[in-house]
Design goal:
By secondary structure, the chain is of the alpha+beta class. It folds into 2 domains: 91 residues, no CATH class; 154 residues, no CATH class. 46% of the residues lie in helices and 14% in strands. The protein has a 3-stranded mixed β-sheet. Helix 3 runs antiparallel to helix 9 and helix 4 runs antiparallel to helix 8. The radius of gyration is 21 Å and the shape is globular. The chain starts with 11 loop residues before the first helix and ends with a strand. 18% of the residues are buried. The chain binds zinc ion. Zinc ion binds next to loops. This is Transposase.
């Protein structure tokens, strides 16, 4: 269900009550997990409505939103280091499932051997793992709150010095702003944690690569599909909009 109001918050109570009513009328179990783009750990009237109907609902902040909040500390998102920075933030937050990753690596190695490259090196294989393949065949999970905090800090330190400048010396990060943002956002790192006991991945099938059978997954974490819809609306309709994202997982 998508609602596009003219003012933030307007009409939302009615929509939330409507969603809750539909679940109860359909006599289905309520969702267990809700991804939001704001108010993840702050008290809000809307969350109170959800919580009074579904007391066990777990609320999490969408990871992409935390990354975007930090990216505001950049001088421009057209900077040539921007994509690398976002990639490193993501790697600071997530780790790949070892078993899935080993299987994919083995498949890529077999592919190389089939194309007559004997003994391909580890770095050659690594370079051939593309983002799409990783997402399709490997599950990810969030690192612990402590590790994420430590790693994001390290990424910011790395990009806040000369290594964060492009070839003509333009810095990726605005020094004061990025540290101020990080100070504000640190408390939300724990709101990113994958909740224990909630299955975020569904295996949709298998695919044979280099003779190795790989699982294919679909992930229910976050609000990526809604985000694409947001971006589309923002580009399609000029003006200022307020969006609230909810992604319910049940
Ligand atoms: Zn939070």
């Amino acid at each position: 269900m998508s609602v596009m109001p003219a003012i933030e918050g307007c009409g939302m109570e009615e929509m939330v009550s409507g969603i809750i009513r539909r679940y109860s009328e359909a006599e289905v179990l309520p969702p267990v997990l809700l991804y939001v783009d704001s108010n993840c750990c702050r008290k809000s009237a809307l969350m109170d409505i959800f919580r009074s109907a579904w007391p066990d609902l777990v609320v999490r902040l969408d990871v992409w939103h935390l990354m975007r909040r930090l990216a505001v500390g950049g001088t421009t998102d057209t900077h040539r280091l921007y994509a690398t920075f976002m990639g490193q933030l993501s790697a600071a937050i997530f780790q790949w499932d070892r078993t899935n990753l080993n299987l994919l690596t083995a498949a890529k190695r077999e592919e190389r051997i089939h194309s007559n490259i004997q003994n391909p090196s580890d770095s050659d294989i690594q370079a051939r793992l593309d983002r799409k393949e990783l997402s399709l065949h490997c599950r990810r999970m969030t690192r612990s709150t402590e590790v994420i905090t430590e790693r994001i800090q390290a990424v910011l330190e790395l990009f806040d010095v000369d290594s964060g400048r492009d070839t003509i010396g333009v810095p990726l990060l605005h020094h004061e702003r990025i540290w101020e943002l990080w100070k504000q956002q640190q408390k939300h790192v724990e709101c990113l944690q994958d909740p224990k006991g909630v299955q975020l991945y569904t295996q949709t099938g298998t695919l044979k690569k280099g003779g190795v059978v790989l699982p294919m997954y679909r992930c229910a974490r976050g609000s990526t599909s809604l985000e694409s819809f947001h971006l589309h609306l923002q580009r399609f309709i000029p003006g200022k909009f307020y969006f609230t994202v909810w992604y319910l997982r049940y």
